[in-house]
Design goal:
The complex is a heterodimer.
Chain A: E1 7-9, H1 14-24, E2 28-31, H2 37-42, E3 50-53, E4 63-66, E5 69-73, H3 78-83, H4 85-90, H5 92-98, H6 104-109, H7 112-117, H8 125-131, E6 135-140, E7 143-148, H9 149-152, E8 153-155, E9 158-159, E10 166-173, E11 180-186, E12 196-205, E13 208-217, E14 224-225, H10 227-233, H11 240-252, H12 264-285
Parallel strand pairs in A: 1-3, 2-3
Antiparallel strand pairs in A: 4-5, 5-10, 6-7, 6-10, 8-9, 11-12, 12-13, 13-14
Chain B: H1 8-15, H2 27-30, E1 47-53, E2 59-65, H3 67-71, E3 75-79, H4 81-86, E4 91-93, E5 99-101, E6 107-108, E7 114-120, H5 123-132, E8 134-139, E9 166-167, E10 170-171, E11 177-184, H6 186-195, E12 198-209, E13 218-224, E14 229-234, H7 239-250, E15 257-260, H8 276-288, E16 292-295, H9 298-303, E17 307-319, E18 325-335, E19 364-372, E20 379-381, H10 389-407, H11 411-418, E21 427-428, E22 434-435, H12 440-451, H13 453-468, E23 474-484, E24 496-497, E25 500-501, E26 504-510, E27 516-520, H14 529-541, E28 548-552, H15 569-596, E29 603-606, E30 609-612, E31 615-621, H16 622-631, E32 642-647, E33 656-666, E34 672-682, H17 689-708, E35 713-714, E36 720-721, E37 740-743, H18 761-779, H19 792-801
Parallel strand pairs in B: 1-16, 14-15, 17-20, 18-19, 27-28, 34-37
Antiparallel strand pairs in B: 1-7, 2-6, 2-8, 3-7, 4-5, 9-10, 11-19, 12-17, 13-14, 13-16, 17-18, 21-22, 23-33, 24-25, 26-27, 26-32, 29-30, 30-31, 33-34, 35-36
The chains are: A alpha+beta, B alpha+beta.
The complex binds flavin-adenine dinucleotide.
GO molecular function, one term (chain B): molybdenum ion binding
Pfam families (chain B): Ald_Xan_dh_C (PF01315), MoCoBD_1 (PF02738), MoCoBD_2 (PF20256)
Enzyme class (chain B): oxidoreductase
Chain lengths: ~290, ~800
Amino acid sequence: MIPGEFTYHRPASVAEAIALLVDHGDEARPLAGGHSLIPMMKLRMAAPEHLIDLSGVADLKGVSQEGDVITIGAMTTQAEVIGSALLTDKLPILRETALLIADPQIRYVGTLGGNVANGDPGNDMPALMQCLSASYVLAGPDGTREVSSRDFYEAAYFTALAPEEILTAVKIPVPAPGHGYAYEKLKRKVGDYATAAAAVMLTMSGGTVSSCAIALTNVGDTPLFAEEAASILDGSTLDRETVKKAVAAAEAITMPASDGRGPAEYRTKMAGVMLERALKRAAERAQG
Amino acid sequence: MNDMTPTREQREAALEGMGCKRKRVEDIRFTQGKGKYVDDIKLPGMLHGDFVRSPYAHAKVTKIDATEALKLPGVIAVLTAEDLKGVNLAWMPTLAGDVQMVLADGKVLYQNQEVAFVVAEDRYIADDAVQLVEVEYEELPVLVDPFKSLDPDAPVLRPDLDGKMEGAHGPRKHHNHIFNWSVGEEEATDKAFAEADVTVKEMISYHRTHPSPLETCQCLASMDKVTGQLTVYGTFQAPHVVRTVASLLSTIPEHKIHVIAPDVGGGFGNKVGVYPGYVCAIVASIVTGLPVKWVEDRMENLSTTSFARDYHMTTEIAAKKDGTVTALKVHVLGDHGGFDACADPSKWPAGFFNIVTGSYDFPVAHLSVDGVYTNKAPGGVAYRCSFRVTEAAYCIERGMDVLAQKLGMDPADLRLKNFIQPEQFPYNSALGWEYDSGDYPTAMHKAMDAIDYRGLREEQKAKQEAFKRGETREIMGIGVSFFTEIVGAGPSKNCDILGVAMFDSAEIRIHPTGSVISRMGTKSQGQGHETTWAQIIATEIGIPASDITVEEGDTDTAPYGLGTYGSRSTPVAGAAIALAARKIRNKAQMIAAHMLEVSEYDLDWDVDGFQVKGNPERRKSMKEIAWAAYHAPPAGIEPGLEAVSYYDPPNMTYPFGAYFCVMDIDVDTGVAKTRRFYALDDCGTRINPMIIEGQVHGGLTEAFAIAMGQEISYDAMGNVQGASFMDFFLPTAVETPHWETDFTVTPSPHHPIGAKGVGESPNVGGVPAFSNAVNDAFGFLGATHIQMPHDAWRLWKVAKDLGAHG
Ligand SMILES: Cc1cc2nc3c(=O)[nH]c(=O)nc-3n(C[C@H](O)[C@H](O)[C@H](O)COP(=O)(O)OP(=O)(O)OC[C@H]3O[C@@H](n4cnc5c(N)ncnc54)[C@H](O)[C@@H]3O)c2cc1C
């Protein structure tokens, strides 16, 4: 439970951080809150020789809205997400989800950027980002690019992020006022990753669903954007039969691992139960 | 008397003696982070040890090459079994009469077994060097399932025992067999079964789990080559026993060994045993002449140093139609892992499991326990319980529920019908114990009234109907548990550890100004001895608890004792304290008589001093007497005021309690919510009600964890699963239910202050209450017995298998 030897760097700007990544190549890793990376280093499942601590880069912090897009700096902590008045007002599902991550101590240090860049299917933010149609701003030696969260995750711990790139911000389109939302997470205890979780965003008009997005956490080796399940619900009144069909479609795309949280069969079913409950709560919250 | 003279009540209150909710004095340092634990101790030149461990559960070790590790700057030595053989320490005796490898001697028997010990200048280097030690293994077939241990073709785990068909506890019948222990009357039991109206039989497993003290096991050994003195700081629950064992193993004379247990961050049985880390640190210090520290990490702790339980109990009860029990028959298969390292009194291979008749008047019973080897970590510690009492309580409390279900009887009524009655005490149980005291019906009725038991049953019935109509997806369970513990090991006639009788001790010295230092052979790991021991002394000799220092854990200063575990401290050391205090009071009485110029027999004890019979104005306080003892001792009386007492208890004590758990289970997720948990404890005289409440809260939280998910399991290859706090269920304040506590008081008739011990009752009684609640919830859907742990996925599976998912 002691990490191997490494050199610690603390750049003051994104450019400096990228330069360090370019210099040290595969041996270097950005360090954000360290609450995913350091445990892996202690288990020696990760052994970076250079840690590039991003906490000295002021540009990576903060929450702002420009037009229809909210931008959250990568180094914004989960606690800051929870405390942001803007996010609570415009994106209440973000707060609801962040409150289900780990415990307060971890949320004070763990960052949104680290959570989405990590690539662990157990992280809660990636599925939520897919549900919200968020995109990630990636800065590298050749400038910046934007990648949709729905295209970012390739396999467990494999993402579209190149080794010399840094994720600088997350961009989220502001959802329609009066939308319904819910993040339902089943876990064994505080501080545990999800056995299964479901994120739902809904708009309703005249009692029928006018738009719907669904994504699932920790029931595959990436977050799962449940496109088909959502499209089944589109235009429905969320009647029992249709919901059942959507749940079945969502369960069908899961491929969970069997672990201490339960066998794969259970986790698949729990993805379905979480989705059903999230739909119910989102519908109750939706106006129109 | 003028107005300023304190009243009797005021004097009594000032003592903060027995019965007072005195705040824990040790918390002042603990809550400020000022406790002093082993890892806080740093000696000049100190080295650090770390283990190379086996990735395999069963393998030959064909080669250990430390060349690369030794090249790393800062690495001092790499010890292997070959090195330990030089000092005859490659193997060590266990408390259970077996022998255990200190470092892998030719083979490994469980995953994470200690293979080599790296000694380096700091912990970082030691850990780096561990990665550089090259070990070659040749895998052997793995034996995980204890039920396959005794198969004819089961792999031979212990070639060292080849041909040895006599073990420490009698004959062995197979190469993986450790012992058979049988108690009771088999024939009479069989006869009762043959004649019974009703019989039930169920294989009730109590899964393998592990205690989780906040502080893991650790030690710091320092050999002074000039004086020949070995000092060992360690997280020990029984420091004197460690000294004796260390002396026997190392042949260093016992007076040259100084064992110190500083603040200990929880034990729960985990810190009773002697582990390879201790032996290796001591040997490394002897070899290098420098202090060597070994500190276990959490994964090492969970996967190696002493599991608990792993008992598979085939339980049969015979009864009449009206529910009167007529016989009990239990066979236990005990999975002991690779070595039998159970921490039980030496003559008790299955601890006090023969308390399994519980709180009920069984005319006859028979118990047979077989211990077997498997490729799992050794241990079998009493995890917050008195030597297999938790397993026994679970066995009988689950068994009674199984019987109630078969009879169609209410489980509380079945218990009431079969209780040992108050007038039957002292009661001789069918399996050989003499229960000292108890009043079970009073406790049970008080508990049932407190939770409105009958009302809850009505509510449950209504909910079951609603569930059947499809109106709810929640089912409700009411768990009943009425346990009897057996603690206070123990009388020398039946309890010893490696030959040392299980007495305990206290030494009390009064200073001239009337303050006190006292030392005991026990060792608090969170129980609050510094607070409660002072309270006993305060009441007995009338000196305020705040003027009394309590010290434990230093073998050079404390009188010899057998330590703290098995709820033995209050029953044994607590008695020694009271008796030592009474010796002091007797001497004080002689001094007071002299001072007051009356006969000793003309004096009455009054709260904090002696007064002349019929003339209470003439009195001498204990403070005045103390001063006189040093300042002007009466002629013919030795100066000074101190006493030592060693107490060999005449019997065990038998705390008991009635626990009720009300639970709601969501059949779609398997998530169980404890709505209410009510715990009534009878631990005899209550020394500090607040500490009792704290102990009960802690023990119930462990019981909740164990019943609802805490588990050490292995896959088919013998890989230990979930040995970290991510998976090993340690509930936080969020998951932990709200506890309602209550009590009755039935003092122990043979204990000087009537106290019985309480620390472990909640774990012992709590587990069956939770498990019975789960079983009770599913009973109406057709379940008879559901194995623990009851975590969400397993309960979901139960619901599914019972057809609850449609
Ligand atoms: C006990 C415990 C329980 C937890 N439970 C949950 C939970 O329930 N749900 C959940 O979602 N999370 C959970 N976490 C993880 C926690 O939220 C982490 O904080 C988060 O996953 C990572 O954020 P971080 O800032 O700590 O990143 P770090 O650990 O510092 O980094 C994680 C990874 O992302 C990379 N990285 C970080 N920032 C950037 C960046 N800006 N650009 C490029 N790469 C970057 C790092 O190199 C590393 O590979 C838990 C953690 C612990 C210790």
